[in-house]
Write a structure and sequence with these properties.
Largest interface: A-B, 61 and 44 residues
Helix content of chain A: 25-40%
Shape of chain A: elongated
Number of helices of chain A: 6
Oligomer: heterodimer
Order of helices and strands of chain B: HEEHHHEEEHEHE
Radius of gyration of chain B: 32 Å
Radius of gyration of chain A: 21 Å
């Protein structure tokens, strides 16, 4: 009789644990997204800029249009030397914000062969690499099931490309990431700003213009 | 505990293990390390500092060059260094337009960086009566811009203002 009760108890406790862990995870997951503004891909109905300069990188496989309002930044010493030497990255000043786009070569940057398809894990690693403070927010945590917070949102561009979005922080700057698969890697978009009133139109315009060839 | 309960407990434990397994395994390979990143993918320390953006726009892009650079820059300055007096004198003869660009606190006269105090002299060096003057407001510092416009207004020189934003 005594055994029977304790058996039931164990079952009950395990059942409750099993049910509550994901709830705890989801709860804290929501709390960890401190930046309460909408991500840039959501804010407003931005149209693709009428005038701009057509650009390409990664041997012409990634093409996009840079609006005239953007001013190029010399990216030497800012990008990792591999990205810079391959001509696979560009940075722009747009009003009081920085816009960046680069091709992340999984063959070059990812260590294990079988990890190259782990797109989400690669994306998190990229975020942690650029914004080291985000690492603790993205690391796997069995208690809170942190990975469920990533990506913070997703979108599909007009040309049908699927983007994963994440809003990180670097010093006093909000750093927005957007990723879309491209070739053996990822096309990464950055938007760095520290004014809430920053217009999201230029980065959205570029995102909408991105086309990825085979 | 009778046999039936034991069986049920066993079954529940197995189901729960199966349910939790992917989460535990996930922990193993969901976090990966990048290689070749001795230098970060994007070095944020060179882009921003605290509350301000430290990255600088590249010197005038080609399209903007056309607007603010006078025609004399293209032919003469490529073959002769700008500091060469004879080249400058030759260039001045052909000057039809003077481009002044105020970028932050820096002043460029015909794309040459000049100091605030040296601005007037540099301007007089290249300005000929009747030449068109284009003043480009490239995120200009207010005080520097004021000083330039006050000087031009004081001299009665007509100029057009362009903004790079």
């Amino acid at each position: 009789m005594r055994m029977k009760i304790s058996g039931k108890r164990i079952m009950g406790i395990l059942l409750v644990l099993c049910l509550t862990i994901p709830l705890v995870g989801a709860g804290s997951a929501k709390g960890s997204v401190k930046l309460d503004l909408d991500e840039y891909h959501k804010s407003g109905n931005a149209a693709v800029s009428a005038t701009g300069t057509a650009k390409s990188m990664h041997d012409g496989k990634i093409t996009y249009v840079i609006p005239d309002s953007m001013e190029k930044i010399d990216a030497k010493d800012i990008f990792n030397e591999h990205i810079y030497n391959e001509g696979d990255g560009e940075l722009y000043l747009v009003n009081d914000a920085i816009f960046g786009i680069f091709y992340f070569d999984s063959d070059y940057f990812v260590e294990e062969f079988d990890e190259k398809d782990e797109t989400r894990a690669i994306e998190r690693a990229i975020i942690s690499n650029i914004c080291p403070d985000e690492e603790k927010n993205l690391r796997w945590n069995s208690l809170t099931l942190k990975h469920y917070t990533y990506p913070t949102s997703q979108s599909t561009s007009r040309s049908g490309l699927k983007f994963d979005h994440y809003v990180g922080k670097y010093q006093n700057f909000r750093t927005e990431f957007a990723f879309t698969p491209a070739g053996n890697g990822l096309c990464v978009i950055l938007f760095i700003y520290n004014h809430d009133a920053t217009s999201a139109t230029p980065p959205i315009s570029v995102i909408e213009s991105i086309k990825i060839g085979v | 505990m009778n046999l039936k309960d034991k069986k049920r407990l066993g079954r529940i434990l197995i189901i729960m293990l199966i349910a939790v397994q992917p989460l535990l395994i996930g922990a193993k390979f969901f976090d990966l390390k990048l290689r070749n990143v001795n230098r970060p993918l994007v070095d944020m320390t060179k882009l921003v500092n605290g509350n301000s953006i430290t990255a600088q726009a590249q010197e005038l892009s080609e399209s903007k060059d056309d607007k603010s650079k006078p025609p004399q820059k293209t032919a003469d300055d490529k073959t002769n260094p700008a500091k060469d007096d004879s080249a400058r004198a030759a260039a001045e003869d052909k000057t039809t337009n003077v481009g002044i660009r105020v970028s932050g606190e820096s002043i460029y006269v015909n794309s040459r960086l000049v100091t605030l105090d040296g601005f007037e002299k540099a301007f007089e060096g290249v300005y000929k009566k009747g030449a068109g003057v284009t003043l480009t407001d490239d995120y200009a510092d207010y005080k520097v811009m004021m000083r330039v416009t006050e000087y031009l207004d004081g001299k009665g020189i007509f100029y057009s203002i362009e903004e790079t934003r």
